[in-house]
User: Fold this.
Amino acid sequence: MTAKERSRGFTLVELLVVIAIIGVLVSLLLPAVQSARESARRSQCSNNLKQIGLGMHSYTDTWGKLPSAIMGGTTSATDDDGWSWATAILPFVEQQSMFSQLNPQGEQLLLPNYYSSKQTTIPGGNTSLKIYKCPSSFLPKIAPSSFAIPGGAMVPLAPHLVGYATNDYKSAGGSCNGDNGPIHKYSERPNCCRFAEITDGLSNTLLVGESSYIFGSPLAAPTKINVWPLWIAGSNDDESVRTNGRTNSPINCGCTPTTMIKAINDDCNFSHHPSGCQFVLCDGSVRFISQNIAITTYCNLHGIDEGQPIGDF
Assistant:
């Protein structure tokens, strides 16, 4: 057999070149795949907020006003404990069966004391609902007994939070000018708010936004997580269900999903999408707002009657 008749295989050099080329192609393709996945997750998150906005409008059509952030009591000892806005709109986001199971009846609910003797959660409150979960968020669907705050150590959760389902969205409660957002605690403004009271305009007022982070105390070196976003109710802290737009509560709270330990406040909107946060406004539109938005503009977007020109955002 002549040399020409022999079958010629790959040399080692040629094989290494092919492997290198494949490696380059994979490195170029992987970011595109990751970007496409994040785009899909962000789209699903946006759709969740759209459905929440529609649910709020349907609730308002039925009851004449927006739901309370927390249907708590009227004293400082009870105003942060009660069924939340997310429970109130369940019948209007295709969750009538869950609403019927909870049977809230609008009354005050002391979450830390509920079933305390049985050491169990409110039946239904441990159910994760897709509409209240951003697919980009890495927070567990159910609040665990302990969790490592990203960038920090493993610490326990306050016992009354454990076992309840996470909600990656919170209502807009207040601005730089006080608790003048569209969705208040019952103790703050029992009869608020009707859409007619939002004099800044529905398209200029935030309704619900992403707030998918946790907060521990004390601030410098947390030994306990006392704020975890829940859908069912307030939990001794109104920050479990609502946010404020203030100079000390900017979008993403001065941290990232991997450095959550550095959060400067427990009132912030926070997103696992890069560089900003998604919101549904009172007119039902969904917007992504940059974390670099002017803080004055951001404050004004949270209030219903600021009376200030909003400008571009």
Q: What stands out?
A: The radius of gyration is 24 Å. Residues 39-302 form one domain. The helical segments are 12-63, 85-88, 96-102, 295-302.
